[in-house]
Amino acid sequence: PNKVTNIACIGAGYVGGPTMAVIAQKCPHIKVTVVDINEKRIADWNDIDLSKLPVYEPGLDQVVAESRDRNLFFSTDVEGAIREAQMIFISVNTPTKTYGIGKGMAADLKYVELCARQIADVATEDKIIVEKSTLPVRTAQAIRTIMNAAPARPNSPSPAPRFTVLSNPEFLAEGTAVKDLHNPDRVLIGGEEDEDGQRAIEALATIYANWVPGERILTTRIWSSELSKLTANAFLAQRISSINALSALCEKTGADVDEVAHAIGTDSRIGPKFLKSSVGFGGSCFQKDILNLVYLCRHFNLPEVADYWEQVVKLNDYQKQRFAKQIIDTLFNTVSGKKIAFLGWAFKKDTNDTRESAAIYVADELLQDRAEIHIYDPKVPTERIYADLEYLQQHRRPQAVIADRAKQSDPPETLSSEAIRRLVHVHKTPYAAMEQAHAIAVLTEWDEFRTYDWQKIYDAMRKPAFVFDGRNILNREELNNIGFELQSIGRG
Ligand code: NAD
Ligand code: UDX
Predict the structure, then answer these.
(1) How many Cα neighbours within 13 Å face the side chain of 271?
(2) Residue nearest to atom 28 of ligand 2 (CA)
């Protein structure tokens, strides 16, 4: 009964797509079907032209090419996939709630709940349900309650199906998803302590054991597994906010934040990773998961714990706003009518994902001051950029820093789509974006930015030629020698 030969995954996004592609690649004996209600997304996963895959990740095209239509299938037939599978991964989005109780903080579990109800409605045989989405601790209980309330089927010859819920959070980072999935630091599986739970854990562990060494497959109680995911993201983001907090002090004192990070990172207790100071962290996970953690702490009446973690997000807001303010201050206290070139829009390099990218917030701050923004990103489509800015106008989170800003001036204006399209221009080449610019801002650490002909860029810019390196990736000496006025994060 432990032998799984048929897997379904609900949700063909940044997690479901790559995760299932790798399982299919490593387990040719298992049929893997990834389903989604988004027809366009499924069509793109099935496109013969692999450059059209909806998720850009280095190496993903080869993984998909290897197993697609062999044992990896993408489909919109959610019910069919549920019916056939012995194990069902739930990998749908769990965004921050934008309405009602917990608005702006709690995770919106409506998509997860819909999946649970659909499985309960459709299933006629036993199923193992795997939480792959990031969920608040104790969600498995809610899923179980829904499953167990499924009405008995009087006409069915077989006994009522049994459902076992596992937690198997995903730790991949975008941009390195395939590498992380092939060679994970660990795989975490949480389950119930009873016999069914233990058997389900073993079934899932057996799948990963096809390529992950046994000692890296950790099994825990289910609540520990659920909470470990939020905790891991909170710790990672906390390191970035810590170094970003120090970057502000470095700028005041003449210390260099990259030197400080290197110096402390060599302490084996601290370690060198996730200490790169930046314009602020982005991505669909860190902010959402910390706010979710904060909400949970408040829910369980732990206000001190909640405030502690909330500060990580506040500091990140501060860092993004500080960067924008530095641009405005340096450009003689106004960017109105000035051309500011953005290098990068994605939230990090090697991805086309822009969710919560720092670039969106910095652009918004500059647009409030009526800047003209010219953007180049190697992977992000033009319409995505407009959609990001338009979305922000409708969904501003009451930010701590924005609240402070109310003391100085008025709260942010809501910009119309027309205003955004008038002021924001997206370019196909970096040189076109930077031509005649008053300033350049580096928002994403794409490798290609280092290799540009910076003399040519300088010659085509207005003088003084300002560069704000929000990622500290440009060659400082080279740019200074050319004549740029370069400002980096955390350098006095
Ligand atoms: P995503 O938005 O890219 O993909 C989710 C998909 O689920 C969408 O395509 C949506 O159409 C589909 N969906 C929603 N409801 C559905 C339903 N009822 N039936 C069928 N399909 C449905 O999201 P993502 O980035 O893949 O994240 C998914 C989960 O994984 C989230 O909980 C996230 O926190 C977690 N996670 C994300 C990352 C990451 O790097 N993006 C890493 C680890 C964990
Ligand atoms: C993160 C977690 O790393 C991953 O384990 C989890 O599964 C999902 O959330 P992701 O958001 O895809 O992954 O990318 P990550 O590499 O963590 O970067 C997040 C943000 O932090 C990016 O904007 C990145 O530029 C920024 N960052 C990262 C820094 O500013 N400095 C650093 O040192 C590291």
Answers:
(1) 6
(2) 274
Residue 347, both tokens: 């939230």
pLDDT digits (tens, 9 = 90+) for 165-186: 999 999 999 999 999 999 999 9
Q: What residue ranges do the domains of the chain occupy?
A: 6-212, 232-488
Q: Which of 282, 306, 89, 307 is nearest to 204 (CA)?
A: 89
SS3 121: helix
Residue 417 annotated as binding site: no
Whose CA is closest to 375, among 398, 346, 408?
Answer: 346
Query: In the chain, which stretches have pLDDT less than 50?
Result: 1, 401-403, 406
297-355 tens-digit pLDDT: 999 999 999 999 999 999 999 999 999 999 999 999 999 999 999 999 999 999 999 99
Q: Are 39 and 76 in contact (CB under 8 A)?
A: yes
49 CB neighbour count, 10 Å cutoff: 8
DSSP secondary structure of 263-324:
HHHTSTTT-STT----S---SSSHHHHHHHHHHHHHHTT-HHHHHHHHHHHHHHHHHHHHHH
Q: Which CATH superfamily is domain 232-488 in?
A: NAD(P)-binding Rossmann-like Domain (3.40.50.720)
Q: Which CATH number fits domain 6-212: 1.10.238.20, 3.40.50.2300, 3.40.50.720, 3.40.50.970?
A: 3.40.50.720
Whether 6-212 shares its CATH topology with 232-488 is answered: yes
Burial of 428 (0-12, 13-18, 19+ CB in 10 A): exposed
Neighbours of 378 (CB within 10 A): 18
Query: Which positions are annotated as active-site residues?
Result: 285
The residue contributing the CA closest to ligand 2 atom 7 is 171
Q: What is the pLDDT of residues 251-302, one digit of tens each?
A: 999 999 999 999 999 999 999 999 999 999 999 999 999 999 999 999 999 9
Residue 177 alpha carbon, nearest atom of ligand 1: 40
Cα 227 to Cα 137: distance, rounded to the nearest angstrom? 5
Percent of the chain with pLDDT over 90: 92
Q: Is 458 in the pocket of ligand 2 (CB under 6 A)?
A: no
The answer to whether residues 201 and 219 touch, using CB atoms and an 8 Å cutoff, is yes
Query: Could you say which DSSP state residue 130 is in?
Result: E
Mean pLDDT of the chain: 95
Q: pTM, whole model, 2 decimals?
A: 0.95
ipTM score for this prediction: 0.98
